Amino acid sequence: MAKNITKDATGKPAFGMRDKVAYAAGDLGCNMSFALKGTVQTFWLVYMAMETQLLSALLLVVQIWDAINDPLIGSMIDADHRSYKLGKYKTYILVGAIGLLIAGALVFLPFPKAEVWLKAMLFIVGYIIWDACYTIANVPYGSMLSLVTEDVGERAQLSTWRSIGSMIGNILPNVILPMLIWKKAFNPDGSKMINEQTGKQVEILLGERVFWAALIMGVLGFIAFLFMIKNINIRVDENSVKTTETAKFNVLAAFKNFMRNRPAVGATLAAMGMFLGMQSATTANTIMFATHFNMASLSGVVQVIGFLPMFAFMPFIKKIVEKYGKKEASVVGTLVSLAGGLVMLIFPLIKNMTLSLVVYIFALAVYGFGMGIYTCVSWAMMGDAIDYNEWKFGTREEGTVYSLHSFFRKLAQGVGPSIVLLIMGALGYVSKLGTVGQSAQTAQNMCWLVAGLYLFSAILQFIGLAVIYNLDKKTLAQMNKDLGREVSEEAN
Description:
Elements: H1 17-34, H2 37-47, H3 52-79, H4 88-106, H5 116-143, H6 145-148, H7 152-181, E1 182-184, E2 203-205, H8 207-231, H9 251-259, H10 262-291, H11 299-311, H12 317-324, H13 326-344, H14 353-393, H15 398-426, H16 440-468, H17 473-483
Antiparallel strand pairs: 1-2
């Protein structure tokens, strides 16, 4: 059933570039905070010298809570029919954005000499506060995509622009932050501190700078959120659709409904694969650059090379999806990523460090190129999954479907890094040695771990999109026809 859309005559301008740029700014704001997640593990592992087993357990606990509170907040938003001056979605986002001003820095309080129990408390309390603020902003932001416009093509455009905001929000901190928080180490006499195992100059982490960098990123993210709130228009009545028959949210029923929504499950598995690989590889990748290549300060620059190919698709994504369909084009991309993952298995075998780095960068670029299409349309695919829920089961459940999608993504973000930390310990990483005293074998093991994680990521993405996600171009067209959805001439 079509929702009530505010007409232009009431003062709302037609959907256009302003909405797209504003929506991109929203994910830029989210990712100015989210991009710190990889740094969290490095900070606590290297600077705070927390043992891999303890950090793994703590990370798993806070991320499981993180995953659980997403559907709770999503259902709360769905059930909230009060009137807000900004509208309920923008109001929730603003509250979360205010919290993120300082919350992101709370998990980076620099007390490396504190007792272990105090470190554990600082980690848990800081992370929970940070994550709660992030969830309050991020869940309504993601759900808002289907309320800015009902037009299928315009939603897909919002998804692409969200990907642009996401990548910019990731690239800026991932490139700049390592340069600020890592520096070459020198002995008291001024000579270079050399790693005896690798024969290269050691780099050390400046933990105090991470705290201040997180504060600055919080301010930049807040500015981006304010820009979005001021400039984006919600054209759909936020309270026009009830997500449940009663005000009470039935967790088991919502989970059951979500699991029978094949597009939502497939898109979610693909996203989980992306995070299990790329997000879980972040810490291992940083440690690899610090111990194997001895260039942790430039690790962010190298990682961006894996993102840059994704931009190549953005000018052409409309024509690509119009001709081949979101699912079909994304599946081809996952095959390219699989090829990149296989090539990445070669670089640990190469003894020449320069050539090894070149092969790694090449494999990363191929992997990123393969992810390009899916990255551009991933959020539009979730918008289609919400429509599928209405098509098959008669209810839309924007907040619930999106928040359960976010639940599994965050579960992957928690379980993945937690398991990787345990694997790092099993492969020989010793926290108390920092990045200075790790053995050459441990550094080599980090290379194999990183390569394996990227390959595993590509495999899961292929299964999710090729095997489970069932909204191909033909089925999607039929669904939109049955639901009375109009596709704009600029639909992608």
